[in-house]
Amino acid sequence: MGPQHGVAAYELAAPRTTVNLRPSLVDPQQARITHFSVCCNNFSSGFDYNHTARINLWMANKTQIVLGDLTKQCLRPTPWFSIPTGYTFAGLVTQSLDDINRPWVQRVAFVAARYPAGAITPECPPPPPTRSPPPPPPPLNSSDVYVSPFLCGYSSGVSYVTNSDRNLGSTYPIQTLSGNADKVLNFAASTFDCNGQVQGVLHGGFNSTMLKSNVSLDLRPQLTDPKMRIASFSTCCAAESYGFAAQGIILQTADGTQLSLGGSCGTPQDWIRVPDGFTFAGLVTQSPADGIKDWVHRLAFVAVRYTANVLMTAGTCTTTRAQPPPPAPPLPHPLLPPPSPLAIPTSRRSLLLAARQTASGVLVSPFFCGRSDLKYMTTTDAYLGATYPIDSISWTSVLGGAARAVSSFNCGKQHGPVHGYYAAGGAMSGSSNMSQIDLRPQLSDPNMRIIQVSACCVMSSKQQEAADTNEAVAGLILRTANQTQLVLGRSSCTRQPWFNIPTGYTFAGLMTQTRVEGINPWLSRLAFVASRTGSAGPHHRKCPPPSPTFTPSSTSSPATVLPAFNVLSFSCGYTSGVDYTNTSDVLSGRILPIQTLSASVGWVLESAMSLYDCNGQVQGPIHGSGYSPTSSNASSIVNLRLQFPDPSMRITHFSACCSGGESDNGSNAVQSILLKTANGTQLSLGSTCFVQQPWIALTRGYTFAGLVTQSPADGRDGWVHRVAPVEVLYPDGARAC
After folding, report:
1. 426 — phi, psi (to 5°)?
2. Is residue 7 part of a domain?
């Protein structure tokens, strides 16, 4: 079975479609897939992502196969792509945003293979007969179903739409209740039947305030354990600005255990008891009919008086566990996953949170050392750490401060991004000290599993004078299960509290932040990555021991001499009369190739961020941080990877749109960013454009590498007011990766 495209984080009520492609092998004259196309669409509720809505396949006999919802209109069909003669359709390559709140497939391409003669065996065994689900029990009488009173929202004066689990809950026992809640209950969905094969309706929606990850409550124990029966239900209501909406779900079991989805609590509500003899079976919710604020506003629950037979059957299925399939043989040379850019967070969603949720099963500790109110370049091992086991970390200290770190993965076949931008051979190389720790034993020896992590922070007067820093990272400390301490850098400084790595997680690398001024080579802040990768242990034991002279390298290692750069003219804002602060991508762009440019846009450009390095593992500083009250908080992203391999996609001109002096408190702020390629293609971040500025031509031979932006120094309007492009003169032969 191939990898899953997209992230099944929502478990929503979406039907699955399966297409049998075996006839294309048996009868290529008629059933061979000859053309491929997709249908692009946009969510109507505020997210401006041009995501994939349908996949279309065309057969040699002119039959069209569609994967997707045919009831939805296709707003943007793409041209048919012809599969070359002699090639066989072989699968998909997809890209999704590394944002848990938007897990769907954004971009899709197809794979075709030219198989050698005799390699294709059309005589596949017939598929097993489809297991028919057991017939549902007869409908229950109305007296056997209880729906509680609604909590939160308005009882009158507002037009709501209602979503209910009553029908499914009356037929199948509930298994899980999942959702997302922060300031309000953004959405919730339940699964039913023995293995959660039946998915309930979606309560709420996506145009929300999702700052936290999804939560799933396992409700199966209530079917077999009387102490775990859900006995009471409650919630909290938000303020009037959120329509007095529900903020979460709180369930209390018979033994007093509380299960909760959501943590905010403005106005707690009284408990509503589940009637004796009834079983909690789902939700009934109401959201505004206009769809603008489509989170859950009113909340009630469903309880059902099941028959003894239903409860007995449900109790049996909760203890059934399917046997796992035999493990597939490991690939000799695993490939890196396709790069996926991070979505730029809105002003109400911190960059740290977006960076932490890089993949399912990835955990990132809080940052140690440094200040949280400065502009940083962020570098993370989370992408590789979620895929491969970590081998080692190499560490370089300069004048007592951490200046460079590189992690090695997958028996040394993969190297993480360079943390910090200290270059060996520089002016301070004589004061440098290198060290390394081997982390492979943690996967084969439980006693060597990393269970706690910490950092050592220091403020050096030399650092203060030379680089104007505050607290910097001096070292890291890892503690194993047998209490062995592994140290990189200094440990005799200001020690930080231990951070516990949860059971089931494995230490997987680092996340660091470095000041963007370009003067200070030290790591300012340090966090730790852990992932669920313990299953890689048996294969990891086969790795050969590292060479004593092993020094990880990286394609993104910075050069000692950085290339020339220019910051071109500013657009929007005012040239005088306003005190601005600068945020610059100059350092990031001179060290690493730009991959994507993302923005949070509404009435104005609220924030922007660039990703660098081959896999987008280095994040530039956030431009802007403000929130426009009238913003839809839509996100936009442009892919700039093709600038190096394809000269026709080189960015040649830059422009911006301004709000004008009479709008937006007279700030004349940036509304959109416009880029034009050598072949005339226009790329844009944002769609609002009151006053477009003249196009600025980039210097011939230079490459677009990011932004320099300005926002008011007094912090009154945190969004982007002025913007200028950065161009870098990379040496001949430079490649993006």
Report:
1. -75, -170
2. no
